[in-house]
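Internal QA ticket QA-208
Title: Verify multi-chain structure generation after dependency bump
Assignee: T.L.

Test input:
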Amino acid sequence: MAISIDIDGISRNFDGVKALDDIQLDIKAGEFFTLLGSSGSGKSTLLRIIAGFDQPTNGSIRFDGKNILNVPASKRSCNTVFQDLALFPHMTVEENIGYGLKVRKEPAAQRQRKVKDILELVDLGGYGDRKIAMMSGGQRQRVALARALVMEPGILLLDEPLTGLDERLRQQMRDEFSRLHKKTGATFILVTHNQDEALSLSDRMAIMHLGKLEQVGTPDEFLNHPQNEFVAKFVGLETILTPSNISVINDNLEIKIADQKLTIPNTEKVENVTHIAVRSDRILVAANDGNGLNAKLISKNFRGRTYECVFKLSDGQKITANIAIENFKPEWKEGTDLTLEFEFGALIPIGKTNNKRA
Amino acid sequence: MTIGFESKIVRSAIWGLTAIALLIIYLPPFYLLAISFNPALQPALPNLSDVSLKWYIELGSERGLLAALKESLLIATVTAAISTITALLAALAYLELGRMRNAWFMLVITPMFVPGVIQGLALSVLLNRAEIVPYWGTVVLGHILWSIPFAFTVILTSLAVVKNNYLLAAADLGATWWQRVVDIIFPLIKPGIAGGIIFSFLLSLNEFSRSSYLVGRQNTLPLTMFGKMNSGATPTIYALSGIIFMFSVLAVGGFMYLQSRQKNLKK
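Actual output:
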């Protein structure tokens, strides 16, 4: 049964340094929730506190409404997949997976059946009697997942489990997480520093920075309505423009940038807009003047299916755009003056107020 | 081992020095071992045709030496058992300590550097105060102080295999402290425990200075052998030395083997 988590005012000080600063967060039962942040943001500390490996300095955590801070890690109905997997090297695959059931004193026959079923679930049928040292990186990952999932936890904690895998395996395991989340129905909490992982897997996610939550919401909200510059940059919105003038006209914003005017819809009604984030994948380039911004192409890099182009406005601000190779004309060289046209949703207003709670 | 980029001269110098060092370390005991197979009374290298087990057979009738050997084996066994268990507990305590680790390590290791004569004297004065008549148990007491630091070091080294996350993972799966020790720590540090037993056993078997203060009526083997040498050596002494030497080498060799197997298991 999936369990909901209620994090209420959690702080954690390490020798006077605030690793977590008054965290307020509700995670719904059965949700795939991601804590996204760079190293030192406090995301792993929060996970360790949920797992019971660490105690907060202040605040409380409730699982399904019950305070669990005085419940030791061994008695909490959550299981963890560790960053380094922490598979027991002296046990076989089967023994690793069955260890928790053995500790729980489940009868041998039932244990065997559960281990066999979970091995099938993670696509490792027949690997039961292998030594851990004989398994490949991706297989070990699955063993670690199976070892946690076989306990049928209400909450599964994933502590950067994809770090150290090559790109192809990453993709595979990502799909695997998603499949297992649907299959088990448990609450999944993933800690990662990779925004693609977070955006593609999560029902909801939070970006952490210096021990605080910068924003909580669905991946869509992060992309289309980042609450501040930091969040925008973290989810991959590289270009953030500072207009010289912004005026609100009904539901639209009229901005002036590099002496050119643009009108953009403000559907989210962001207040005190100070910056405009630009989605690099929703920009079109036209040769002559159109309804857009005139800019000079200053560099282009081949990225497989696209050219990553950097444009410079007359006031010196730069815009990065990813242009599909079939839309890129060979006569466009560094130094060519072009016009950038913005598709719907390409320009995202960012307000100054920085609402920490969501 | 091969240092690829060094010049030939440097490499041959390194190999030469290594050979000389090994010779200095290993020649004397092997010389003694060879002598023990010479049936002549005077100590000398035997001709290949003369090699005999004469002194080894005669050893069987040396009552004094055998009684001393029996006493030493008893003392070494008890010492090994107590030292290893204590060292293991000290190592587990080390795992739990945070910043105090270095202090704890120094505290446990220091008896290694207290001269045996002083430790033996100190213990014997104390036991005298307590009116305890020396017997094999008092020797064990001295030997435990001597061997715990060594057993502790060996076990601590093997604990490096036990990553903290293994213990967290076990706890996460519901294991209590005791289950973590028995299911995770013990199997992983088995070679270290074996090493602790072997080292403390051998250290006790060969200990001299502490024993000389703490011994009761029955002398230990090193004490008896020393006495015999002073009153004119019989070649049976060489035979006994040969046995102890071979046994020690085998024991340490066995320990090395166990440890290399553990390393293979790791990667």
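Spot checks passed. Residues 4 and 29 of chain A are 4 Å apart (CA to CA).
Status: verified.
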